[in-house]
Write a structure and sequence with these properties.
With about 575 residues, this protein is α+β, with helices and mostly antiparallel strands. The protein contains 14 helices and 31 strands.
């Protein structure tokens, strides 16, 4: 392609509202432009990268028996009303009316559409399992779009849906998808982890997120420093063998602790570690109140509380609720003597605290010498705390570390939530009507592009992996006014194209400095410069990643380029 013919509006300066590297570079290199908050145009170079990611996704989806279709972005409200989701998604669901005043959603995802399609077209177990996928634009009216393509309001997603007549068949498709996702993100050159995640509102049980490690990621991952264990911080199970201290239990005492409220203040006041303190939090769980007790140095994981109690809603009780239920303020809560209608549940670590300290449910007093089982009872001990860096990895191998991650993929076992709500049934081998068992699997295609830039850049610009680069070679004559350089450049351009090496030919009449700065910004793997040795048919080859420079005779160029690309 000739650069003078393409729209690649590069910027010298960093755009003010672009806070992260990928957002800055994609704008500066002329790969994309913003049309509105969270809404972008992919310009030619950016669109070529999108195409490459999509191609990799298609190959891997087809390889596991997925068939590509394309569903509408305009989704009739009736479908969303069948599952009830029309009512429980708020302003994030973009809605509109057509000329007849009929309501539609601009699709944020396609469970309802695909389930309505399959219920109409599939009725026998013989047609299952079925894996359908699409690569399509999604709309979600994010409250705070930011970080460019990482959190947009219109974005490109590959979303796949699978339909099964048995849980085993779903498991098989789920595992195939995990393998396909692993291939996709490996082929994109990404450093990622498949992470055990919480299914959140999607129902179903197993779910994995694919996280690209990056400091700008919004999710926190807990992963083992020696094994491949990795879990979203919300889900990471805690498996610790707490040792029981051999202290002998002392008597319970109520001690005046004027103005001491937080664990920090109380542990300092008594000059003990936070591990000796008990932290009690009152939660409103659906319609009842539950007191959660954890060790002073731990944090309550409300997702674990919600999953343990199979609750729809778990919220920290307000100060007023605390006052009315426990007759004390939040800083004085303790598990001793709470009203019997308040269930007390403790994290496993609490049962190993001997002679602990806890609030006395009245201001300016605390109990010391507290021993669970003697001074207060719990209905159960459970894993209710957030995992911490330094904890042993739950798989027994290595120690937990934290990292930030960008979610680029998410796979779910949906079960029959949608097929039951929408009566997507099939006749099993006994002629009995059964709801289809479903899975759904997403990849953020446009988000993946931004994640790649986040992982591969340097002070001069982007550094594309070969698999995703818009062009493999950037061909730059130093001086277009010198015929020998211009003619050799054009000969090389034709030669590379005829050998299916993708090349962007910078045929502009620009100063070399401008050309090289743009070239570094674009970040293609190889740059060929045609300069003063053109008359000897010698050119300079530069590798973008390492900066290594080689002189190459034009006759060897194709072989050298192919060798450099394969070992890049
Ligand atoms: C909505 C809105 C936002 C949403 C959803 C629905 C996320 C919604 C979850 C999923 C689950 C999977 C198939 C591909 C992979 C992800 N945000 N989710 O359902 F109405 Cl406004 O999309 N869907």
């Amino acid at each position: 392609m000739k650069q003078s013919k393409m729209l690649i509006p590069t910027l010298r300066d960093v755009p003010a509202d672009a806070e992260i590297k990928s957002h800055q570079l994609l704008l500066r290199a002329g790969f994309m432009r913003q049309n509105a908050s969270g809404v972008y145009s992919y310009l030619p170079l950016g669109k070529r990268v999108i195409n490459k990611v999509e191609q990799i996704v298609r190959e891997e989806m087809d390889a596991i028996g997925g068939s590509e279709l394309l569903m509408p972005a305009l989704q009739p409200a009736e479908l969303w009303q069948e599952t009830g989701r029309w009512y429980n998604f708020g302003s994030e669901l973009m809605r509109l009316r057509d000329r007849h005043d009929r309501e539609f959603a601009l699709g944020p995802t396609h469970e309802e559409v695909v389930t309505s399609l399959v219920r109409d077209e599939v009725s026998s177990y013989k047609k299952l399992p079925l894996i359908l996928y699409q690569i399509q634009t999604k709309f979600r009216d994010e409250a705070r779009p930011r970080f460019g393509l990482l959190r947009g309001r219109e974005f490109i997603m590959k979303d796949a849906y699978s339909f099964h007549s048995s849980p085993e068949s779903l498991d098989e498709a789920y595992q195939d998808m995990v393998r396909a996702y692993t291939n996709i993100f490996r082929r994109c050159g990404l450093n990622f982890r498949a992470v055990i995640a919480d299914s959140g509102a999607m129902g179903g049980k197993d779910t994995h997120e694919f996280m690209v490690l990056s400091d700008v990621g919004e999710d926190t991952i807990a992963f083992s420093d020696t094994s491949d264990f990795a879990a979203n911080i919300e889900m990471a199970p805690v498996v610790v063998d707490y040792e029981k201290s051999n202290e002998t239990p002392t008597t319970l005492e109520k001690v005046a602790t004027k103005d001491q409220k937080t664990i920090e203040e109380v542990s300092k006041f008594f000059n003990v570690s936070k591990e000796k303190c008990l932290k009690s939090l009152l939660f409103k769980v659906d319609e009842k109140y539950v007191l959660i007790v954890v060790r002073g140095d731990h944090e309550v994981n409300d997702i674990k509380v919600k999953n343990l109690l199979e609750a729809k809603m778990v919220e920290l009780a307000t100060a007023e609720e605390t006052l009315s239920i426990l007759d004390c303020e939040i800083g004085s809560i303790g598990p001793i003597g709470v009203p019997k209608e308040v269930e007390v549940i403790a994290d496993h670590a609490v049962q190993f605290v001997v002679n602990g300290i806890c609030g006395a449910n009245e201001p300016d007093f605390h109990y010391t010498g507290v021993n669970v089982g003697r001074d207060f009872m719990v209905s159960q001990f459970a894993d209710l705390r957030f995992i911490k860096a330094g904890d042993p990895s739950p798989d027994g191998q290595g120690t937990i570390q934290f990292a930030k991650g960008i979610e680029v993929g998410h796979v779910f076992k949906l079960g029959t939530f949608y097929s039951e709500a929408m009566k997507a049934t099939y006749l099993d081998e006994n002629g009995k009507s059964q709801p289809m068992i479903m899975g759904c699997y997403g990849i953020g295609v446009s988000r993946t592009v931004a994640a790649v830039v986040e992982q591969f850049n340097d002070e001069n610009g982007m550094v594309w992996p070969v698999a995703l680069t818009p062009f493999e070679v950037h061909l730059i004559p130093i001086n277009m006014k010198m015929d020998v350089q211009k003619e050799l450049a054009e000969e090389i351009y034709e030669h590379l194209n005829s050998h299916s090496i993708s090349v962007l030919y910078d045929d502009r009449n620009e100063r070399p400095g401008v050309k090289f700065a743009d070239s570094d910004l674009f970040g293609f793997p190889i740059r060929i410069t045609v300069g003063k040795k053109a008359e000897d048919r010698i050119v300079e080859l530069k590798l973008r990643k390492t900066g290594e420079v080689f002189e190459v005779s034009v006759n060897d160029l194709v072989d050298v380029i192919r060798e450099k690309l394969s070992s890049y």
